[in-house]
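Here is one chain, start to finish.
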Amino acid sequence: NWKKINKKTPMYRFWRLLIQKRKDFLHHFRGKYYTGKINSYGIPEIQWFDPALQTPDWSNKEARTLAVVLGDVEDDADETRNAFVMMNMFWEPIRFGIPQYDGLEWHRTIDTAMPSPEDAYTHKKAKPLASKEYEVQARSIAICITKKSKKTRSK
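Its structure:
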């Protein structure tokens, strides 16, 4: 019975924000086929990485890390709703490289290893990354989103 749920719990807050993020990025999940498009920032519709930003070794049965960029390639969008998902299923923290795109900055919006309320932020309150790397804790997932850079974008 959803009417009896305590809306002040950290778990409720986290899932409410996660559902909102799915709505914000719905164009990435419409059940469409990927087309191979690349947006004006050079971000592909989908691209897989290992922590060193190389193509993952799909044959490695022991791999416990994976990252993916989901590029905003919608024709009616400003192409800034990009996401970078880092997944660490290893039992120790792993540093992931962060792909760099001229004109955009990455902001952490979810980190499942962080305590509430630092585990999830709205798009507006997402925390800017201070480095070109991010340490994902053991058995955790971190998600970053892009915002337009305050620096001038070169063409």
